[in-house]
Amino acid sequence: MAGVGKISPQDLESVITRGVSEIISRDEFVRLLQSGKKLRLKMGFDPSRPDIHLGHVVGLRKLRQLQELGHQVILIVGDWTAQIGDPSGQSATRTMLSHEEVLENAKSYLRQFFKVVDESQAQVIYQSEWFGNFDLAKVIELTGRFTVAQFLQRADFAQRFADQKPIAITELLYPLLQAYDSVAIEADVEFGGTDQMFNLLVGRELQGMMGQTPQQCFMMPILVGTDGVQKMSKSLDNYVAVDEAPVDMYGKLMSVSDDQIMSYFEYLTDVPMPELAAMAADVESNALNPMEPKKRLAWEVTNQFHDRAAADAAQAHFERVVQGRDLPTDIPEMSLADLRSQGVTEGNEVRVDDLMLAAGLAPSKAQVKRLLTQGAVERISQDDDPQPVTGGEAGYLLQPGDLLKVGKRRYVRLTDS
């Protein structure tokens, strides 16, 4: 296999420190980078969901950085393990998916994955290439290499066992199958979040058992969501999706808590670290309003996934609508006629919750209730007088001309026709 060029001290420092939580073993990994060998970089994903958010992008950017230094990315599509479900960070087992659902999710995931990673320098492999012919004897041989006691050391298993909550046998197989992926492709380095440490280490150990050089385990930090508290997650509604429209992406990033701005800069942009240190110092000393670096962050990330024109337009929209409190010029409309044809209403008025659902401002009645309870919904009548719609007013009747605002950026106007 062809080697790669000598890595500069500056590139080495960036690879092993920026957006990195831990490397096992760091010294071994550095020696590999300096050896000139073209490394096989493994990242696996289970397409249990069809989309990617910025929390995933932290690791993808590291893969792209190493690609640019000449290394080979190998993406493992977990079309088998996704049917089991990895409980990492979960308090219960996950719903098993059909193989057809997994493959459909994978198509969407890959399209978004290659918005960050260079497709021309990546290899995509489905687990079914080796697990498709895995018989019972091989499964038993694989399970015989580890003990239940070893697996109960994993934090989420240990907690559920202590709480007397169920742990399916299939879940114990998950780390073994992920580990075998590393054996199958002879991975040099495997990438994952800190919540994947146990699984990555099982792969490292299994490779050693099977006569291969143990992989290095490269772990990225967990990105805190826009709520500033918990990890970014769609289920917690604190995420920014890779496929987000420019205005929504910019707007959501502007809701990032002030104490997370520098982490987002470090993990998701190429702004040099010395510049970030100076920026952080200026914010700390009150020489710089946090709003300014936050707007730059939102612009940098939006530009990365769209383009300069889209990022500029999103920033202008935010400054006009949110900061200037002006209404957008392109508010979506829904007519009473359309709502009647859909069976949403029969009269000349429509309920708040029905309009929110019909306009796609919330995916379910439960979400409508949550938004109302949080005070995130406003009715703006024809005289432009904003009135909050409270938690008990889901059935409040709107009339043609009324404008409904949900959150800071989403609107819909009810019309006669």
Summarize the structure.
This protein is 44% helix and 13% strand. By secondary structure, the chain is α/β, with parallel strands linked by helices. It has a six-stranded mixed sheet, with helices on both faces. A five-stranded mixed sheet has the order 7-13-12-9-10. A two-stranded antiparallel ribbon has the order 8-11.
Give a structural overview.
By secondary structure, the protein is an alpha/beta fold. The protein has three domains: 9-220, 3-Layer(aba) Sandwich (Rossmann fold); 246-323, Tyrosyl-Transfer RNA Synthetase (Orthogonal Bundle), CATH 1.10.240.10; 333-415, RNA-binding S4 domain (Structural Genomics Hypothetical 15.5 Kd Protein In mrcA-pckA Intergenic Region, Chain A). It is built from 18 helices and 13 strands. The protein has helices at residues 9-17, 26-35, 54-67, 99-113, 128-131, 136-143, 148-151, 155-162, 169-185, 197-209, 246-253, 261-268, 273-284, 291-305, 308-323, 336-341, 352-358, 365-373; strands at 22-24, 40-45, 72-77, 122-126, 189-193, 216-220, 333-335, 350-351, 377-380, 386-388, 397-398, 403-406, 410-415. It has a six-stranded mixed β-sheet with strand order 1-6-5-2-3-4, with helices on both faces. A five-stranded mixed β-sheet has the order 7-13-12-9-10. The protein has a two-stranded antiparallel sheet with strand order 8-11. Helix 12 runs parallel beside helix 14 (291-305). It is globular, with a radius of gyration of 25 Å. The protein starts with 8 loop residues before the first helix and ends with a strand.
